[in-house]
Amino acid sequence: xxxxxxxxxxxxxxxxxxxxxxxxxxxxxxxxxxxxxxxxxxxxxxxxxxxxxxxxxxxxxxxxxxxxxxxxxxxxxxxxxxxxxxxxxxxxxxxxxxxxxxxxxxxxxxxxxxxxxxxxxxxxxxxxxxxxxxxxxxxxxxxxxxxxxxxxxxxxxxxxxxxxxxxxxxxxxxxxxxxxxxxxxxxxxxxxxxxxxxxxxxxxxxxxxxxxxxxxxxxxxxxxxxxxxxxxxxxxxxxxxxxxxxxxxxxxxxxxxxxxxxxxxxxxxxxxxxxxxxxxxxxxxxxxxxxxxxxxxxxxxxxxxxxxxxxxxxxxxxxxxxxxxxxxxxxxxxxxxxxxxxxxxxxxxxxxxxxxxxxxxxxxxxxxxxxxxxxxxxxxxxxxxxxxxxxxxxxxxxxxxxxxxxxxxxxxxxxxxxxxxxxxxxxxxxxxxxxxxxxxxxxxxxxxxxxxxxxxxxxxxxxxxxxxxxxxxxx
Length: 475
Hints:
Elements: E1 2-6, H1 18-31, E2 36-42, H2 48-52, E3 55-63, E4 66-75, E5 78-84, H3 86-89, H4 107-122, E6 133-137, H5 144-150, E7 156-161, E8 169-170, E9 191-192, E10 195-197, H6 198-205, E11 208-211, H7 214-219, H8 223-226, H9 230-236, E12 239-240, H10 270-281, E13 289-296, H11 302-306, H12 309-314, E14 318-325, H13 327-339, E15 344-348, H14 352-361, E16 364-367, H15 377-384, E17 387-391, H16 394-399, H17 405-410, E18 416-418, H18 423-437, H19 440-452, H20 458-472
Parallel strand pairs: 1-2, 1-6, 2-5, 6-7, 7-11, 11-12, 13-14, 13-16, 14-15, 16-17, 17-18
Antiparallel strand pairs: 3-4, 4-5, 8-10, 9-10
Helix pairs in contact: 4-5, 10-14, 15-19
């Protein structure tokens, strides 16, 4: 089976979040199930090295007003196509915003062009390429099913929601410039409360919708989580498939980012990694070491955590935080570090290597998200023996087994799960974690349970492959 995956980012080439990890890891996992995935990405500056040895296989003199080339290359052992359009993608800053963090005003055109190219590939309009299925990831690829349908593609399509809060909604005035049929300006197409909805288009026009955990697939049918699209999801349905980890990247037994590598049988070696975390974050030796690797936003519950930092330290805990986001939250965490030198250490920004060290050295990771489609951070924690303390939502609820009395007695608990994202709920969860940490045999069992589980992509990739075949095999 030949699948064209289209996305705006892919690890290790360009990453702003978990989407990149999924797009980077899923093709290799699908290959074990008879699916060959070709990934289509925008030609950001970060792609320069990847495309240097590639070959130009197609040209567009006018792709939504820009000259563009399609470059064929490889990402590891997997086929990769890069849409090289300097006018659209050769810019400083990140994939979506300039160096000051402001969204590019022509993001609609940048990602409509990506989707148009995907649609032409899916429709067989690029010589030498034929695909059985188009897999569109998030809003940036949301128009790909629309273009594929408009161009008469025989290939089926799947739209995957990684986070329904990000929808790609633009002014109605761009619709005539997209080159799509007038009939698609409707409630069954791109129209979304009088504007153009990229994600909405993908959800309305793809043959099947998936999202990244079973619980999230149910949550987004409700107003609280659906962000205005709950009616569409309730009507069409969504299949929840939990994300996995790439063991070539996330494996404490082989991770080059760790001073000491280990397995669930060699957990004592983590003490060297803890010492490295303490040195990096300027922390004194002491009680349980909590970590955070997160965007600092209300979605992630960081506003609630910020109110509990004094209490965490007074209770004997310590915190190492790596993240960035809301400036007021950044200031609150930095102020707490100033109040509690040696107990709280903060790094504003993101560092891939440092994120591995935190998972390999901290005792527990705090993830009090108000909603979390799947979450990969808790999976990293489980795989590394960094016990997750999570809110009961989305993929967090699907992957972490709470250390309640029954789960502890059965020997199956893997973390601490709390209901609601309130100061009381999170404070109680942190206190529970501290009490469990004070019982070394119990805490070690939590670590071992998480590490022994299979968090690879294999089972989820098999589910994707089965779904793809259901769509493409003729009756």
